[in-house]
Amino acid sequence: MVLRVTDMGVARGGVPVLDGVSLALGPGEALVLRGPNGIGKTTLLRAVAGLQPALAGQVEAAPESLVYAGHADGIKAALTVTENLAFWAQVFGTDDISTALETFRLAPLAHRQAGALSAGQKRRLGLARLLVTGRPVWLLDEPTVSLDVDAVAMFAGAVRGHLAAGGAALIATHIDLGLAEARVLDLAPHRAAPLELDDFDGVFL
Ligand SMILES: Nc1ncnc2c1ncn2[C@@H]1O[C@H](COP(=O)(O)OP(=O)(O)OP(=O)(O)O)[C@@H](O)[C@H]1O
């Protein structure tokens, strides 16, 4: 197993949103998180990534094996595409940025300032970052937002390549990525029970 989440409960703004979530990913596996807007997909992914505390449960993964890609891609607007990738390579202690440039067809934009990219191009740069990190377990929050049909296929290809190389991916998405190999976890049955009135008051104390 490269990632195991056991009986996790998460809250947003002090209000529990999900509980009892368990999942496991082995090398080469992808799992898609499904559920309606607001059910807590982002909150769960952030908790798994260690970016916010969980209410309950455990996350087991090798140290420094996880990388999270969320809505804010961490792009530095004043740096060029190449400089952004080189910066991340330095942060993560890797050295290959050419695979990332190629996979997301960023080579023609290599010397463009990131701030001058379109929304979809920025998204491609944010996803290219995943390849540069060299980390095996990708935690992806709505990775295809702003991507056109070609770029979605590009992204699906990158995920497939990652899985084939023994990586894993946990993906919150509303669209069908065409990843036949991905399992699906519906979060609807894990919606946290509404708070009792007393507890509800407690949230605001
Ligand atoms: N800053 C915040 N403070 C308090 N509650 C919040 C905050 N942001 C989101 N929420 C609430 O937390 C719950 C979970 O939100 P979350 O973003 O995790 O859902 P999601 O499943 O990722 O939704 P979507 O499909 O719309 O991206 C929602 O009910 C949302 O309204």
Automatic annotation (TrEMBL):
Q: Key word ATP-binding present in the record?
A: yes
Q: Which residues form a coiled coil?
A: none
Keywords, comma-separated and alphabetical: ATP-binding, Cytochrome c-type biogenesis, Membrane, Nucleotide-binding, Translocase, Transport
Pfam families named among the record's database cross-references: ABC_tran
The ABC transporter domain, residue ranges: 3-205
Q: Which InterPro entries match?
A: AAA+_ATPase, ABC_transporter-like_ATP-bd, ABC_transporter-like_CS, ABC_transptr_haem_export_CcmA, P-loop_NTPase
Q: Sorted alphabetically, which PANTHER family does this protein's record hold?
A: ABC TRANSPORTER I FAMILY MEMBER 1
The name of this protein is Heme ABC exporter ATP-binding protein CcmA
The organism named in the record is: Roseovarius ramblicola
